[in-house]
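Students often ask why inverse folding is considered easier than folding. One informal answer: many sequences map to the same fold, so there is more than one right answer. In these notes we will look at a single instance of the problem. The structure comes first.
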């Protein structure tokens, strides 16, 4: 190997090792706080969103196999109250304790600017099925069957246009 090339390769390896050691020492010395109240690290949100988008892939194209009607929305409301409200809140209620103490905070899915009504239902179904690692959002494949996951997905996807009958089911 010509010696200039060898030094070039050695330089790259040394830089990579220096980065790895630097990252290790940064984390080891407490540079990455695990407190929920700590400020997000630079790029933390960007990287997390990038990884989430890549994991979701084209799941948004999946269409709901169940009918959009009050029976399915009512079933979704019961599931939501039992499994989701502790974190994601209920209509007309103050933010939950979990939303004030977790990082990232669970969005209050019945508060207007935090709703997921603009997301394709397939994306919400993916999140309810798989959860979001390192965020506290559980996946529910063991707890809810496909139909139940679509019912609760349908409920939060239409959170801004629920009938009075369905809203009544969501009273605390
Ligand atoms: C233990 C708390 C907790 C429970 C219980 C929980 N979630 Fe979540 N959920 C979270 C957190 C935290 C996030 C935010 C994740 C993030 O920002 O990446 C989240 C995110 C979401 C999102 C994405 C919101 C957005 O703005 O993109 C949806 C949809 C969702 N949850 C639906 C549900 C449903 C439906 C249930 C019940 C079947 C549920 N969650 C139960 C904590 C929870």
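Output (designed amino acids):
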């Amino acid at each position: 190997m010509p010696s200039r090339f060898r030094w070039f390769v050695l330089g790259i390896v040394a830089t990579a090792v220096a980065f790895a050691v630097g990252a290790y020492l940064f984390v080891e010395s407490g540079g990455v706080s695990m407190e929920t109240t700590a400020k997000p690290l630079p790029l933390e949100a960007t990287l997390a969103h990038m990884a989430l988008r890549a994991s979701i892939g084209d799941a948004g194209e999946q269409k709901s196999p169940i009918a959009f009607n009050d029976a399915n929305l009512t079933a979704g409301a019961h599931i939501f109250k039992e499994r989701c409200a502790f974190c994601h809140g209920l209509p007309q209620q103050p933010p939950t304790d979990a939303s004030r103490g977790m990082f990232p905070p669970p969005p209050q899915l019945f508060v207007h600017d935090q709703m997921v009504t603009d997301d394709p239902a397939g994306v919400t179904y993916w999140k309810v099925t798989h959860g979001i690692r390192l965020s506290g959002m559980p996946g529910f494949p063991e707890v809810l069957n496909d139909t139940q996951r679509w019912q609760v997905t349908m409920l939060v996807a239409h959170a801004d246009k629920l009938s009075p009958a369905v809203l009544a089911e969501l009273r605390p």
